[in-house]
Amino acid sequence: VKRSASPRASSSYMRPTADLNRARQDFNIQQFRTASYEQDILGGELQLQSRFTLGDVRNRHTYGLEASTSDIVRDRDGLQVNLTTGMISNFLNPDTFPVKDLPDTTVFRLGGFVQDEIAFGAGERFTLIPGLRVDYYNQDAEPDPIYLRTSGGIVPIDYDQVAVTPKLAAV
């Protein structure tokens, strides 16, 4: 039996962008906008292999699991300053900031697979490879007050999906 494991390191990043517009010629207004995206990912995979012979037929089983979870947060913010009066506003048409176009979300993925390479015939000339993979995907949206205000109160729908994928190859 051969064993190997390769964990996926946790990673986190934030990519803020700022847009500083020059004062508009028609109005003495300066606008500031930011957008951020943060994703924390933790996951890993495990793959195992075993070899055996049944009579004249050589088998090599490969099987394993993959799993990951992601926490995703995205938001936008902005304000404008009237350079004549000094008045500051968080309304930049059509948005009243801060806004969230999408809710904070947690995604979980789990996959398992198995395959058998079956070699047979004179000199093991032929190989039949049946395989099966099962994947589970879950997305949980976590609306906060900013998202609910931005969306007009529309509550997001969570998502669950299972997929079974059989495969067959011949070489």
- Gross morphology is rod-shaped
Round the Cα radius of gyration to an integer and report it: 27 Å
Please give the share of residues in helix: under 10%
Q: Main beta sheet, described? A: 8 strands, antiparallel
Number of strands: 10
Number of helices: 1
Beta content:
over 45%
Q: What structural class is derived from the secondary structure elements?
A: mainly beta
**How far is the N terminus from the C terminus?**
24 Å
How much is the average pLDDT?
87
Task: Write the element-wise H/E pattern from the N-terminal end onward.
Answer: EEEEEEEEEHE
- The unreliable regions are 1-21
What does this structure look like?
The structure is a single chain. This protein has 171 residues and is mostly beta strands. Helices cover 4% and strands 71% of the residues. It has 1 helix and 10 strands, in the order E-E-E-E-E-E-E-E-E-H-E. The strands form 2 sheets. Strands 1, 2, 3, 4, 5, 8, 9 and 10 form an 8-stranded antiparallel β-sheet that branches. A two-stranded antiparallel ribbon has the order 6-7. Strand 2 and strand 3 form a beta hairpin. The N terminus is likely disordered.
